[in-house]
Amino acid sequence: MPLIALTGGIASGKSTIAGRLAERGAVVVDADALVRELQEPGQPVLGRIAEEFGPGVLRSDGSLDRAALGAVVFGDDAARARLNAIVHPAVGRESARRFRAALDGDPRAVVVYDVPLLVEARADDPWDLVVVAHAPATERIRRLVELRGMTEADARARVASQASDERRLEIADVVIDTGGDLASTIAQTDALWERLHSGDVGGRS
Q1: String of b and e for 143-167 (b: at least 16 CB within 10 Å)?
Q2: Which tens digits make up the pLDDT trace of 110-140?
Q3: Residue 203: which residues within 8 A CB-CB, separation 6 or more?
Q4: Pairwise CA distance, residues 159 & 164, whole Å
């Protein structure tokens, strides 16, 4: 079972690649979705976040106020590190459980972990292949402004808050160039799938 880490900066087209691999038959585990699930009311992670950052990060119904939490940790490296120390281990355990479940269900499954913060949190995990969705920062900023309605300043801040393109590319076994049109991204993703399906994983030993 190839275990593939798929990463990329914000607005890099990573979700497009993950969606296409799922269409072709891969089991995709979405790290962002796991985080949201683990931060739901009643989950230990949410309780620890509230203890660490105070009741102001919760809504009146007890759910996480993501905007309030974001305001606390954005631009504050120490606060973000404290949050990561709560969230990342829990996500690691739950993702590993889902990887095992996929393998138990189909020993030949191709499992893709869609993970934005691979460089920051899980670069050293035993992936069979690391795939990086790559588009220039200028293009990703344009997409954030034109497609997501951000101001240019906000878009630049979001891009700058993540790992650099250079750091992501350093750990890449496969780079999918997402700077062009959708058809190009899909074609590259299909080519990757053919490699995976044929057993030609390459990458790491």
Answers
A1: bbbeeeebeeeebbebbeebbebee
A2: 999 999 989 988 888 889 999 999 999 999 9
A3: 127, 128, 129, 130, 173, 174
A4: 8
* Kind and range of the H or E run holding 7: strand 3-8
Task: Provide the greatest CA pair distance for the chain.
Answer: 52
The DSSP letter of residue 140 is: H
pLDDT digits (tens, 9 = 90+) for 5-55: 999 999 999 999 999 999 999 999 999 999 999 999 999 999 999 999 999
Separation of alpha carbons 80 and 163, rounded Å? 14
| pLDDT of 107 above 70 | yes
Report how far residue 129's alpha carbon sits from residue 127's, in angstroms, rounded to the nearest whole number. Answer: 5
The pair phi, psi for residue 133, each rounded to 5°, is: -85, 125
Position 191 pLDDT exceeds 70: yes
62 contacts: CB under 8 Å, gap ≥ 6: 41
CB contact at 8 A, 125 and 31? no
Q: Look at the block and give the residue holding tokens 């050293």.
A: 124
pTM of the model: 0.88
Give the other-Cβ count within 10 Å of 72's Cβ: 17
CB 174 within 8 A of CB 130: yes
CA angle 116, 64, 28 (to 5 degrees): 30
